[in-house]
């Protein structure tokens, strides 16, 4: 028999502070100057967006496996969308154009995430090719390979975290300076 009052219990939503802390870590890492200076990521609005998407994708992949992961993922993605909306408005994009641009951001995110998921199943070289295409404008394959090693290391780091550490935002991404095929 089911307890008759289970329907009154609300599902536990991730705290706003936790989501903001995790998203803040993603944004901070995506702004790391080494990506732009040493790995050839264009220091443009598009380059920064692409790195943000890469880091968000890596964290969302890991969050799917925690208890309540679907809610965490959705809330984190909503935080990303709110940030993109606010940035568009700050750049002076008009109210009528914002929804179209937001749709384009969503399509870009899901397209890149699908490409990275598919490439990751085939190994580092396909991931490097996907990163080269999406982040480095189809150029600088050696930098794309270094970026793929970085992504693999970050994914491994995230996979090694226990759920409480991950959800508590008490972890760090690896440094892109310490990761690469030459090591």
Features:
single chain, 183 residues, mainly alpha, 8 helices
Walk me through this protein's architecture.
The chain has 183 residues and is mainly alpha-helical. The protein contains eight helices and no strands. It has helices at 16-30, 33-37, 45-63, 69-90, 98-122, 124-134, 141-159, 163-167.
Short description, anyone?
Helix content is 66%, strand content 0%.
N-C termini distance: 59 Å
Low-confidence stretches: none
Q: Kindly state the mean pLDDT as a whole number?
A: 88
Number of helices: 8
Question: Hey, roughly how much beta strand do the residues contain?
Answer: under 5%
Largest sheet: none
Q: Can you count the beta strands?
A: 0
Any idea what the radius of gyration is?
Answer: 18 Å
Helix and strand element order: HHHHHHHH
Task: Produce the secondary structure layout.
Layout: H1 16-30, H2 33-37, H3 45-63, H4 69-90, H5 98-122, H6 124-134, H7 141-159, H8 163-167
Helix pairs in contact: 1-3, 1-4, 3-7, 4-5, 5-6, 6-7
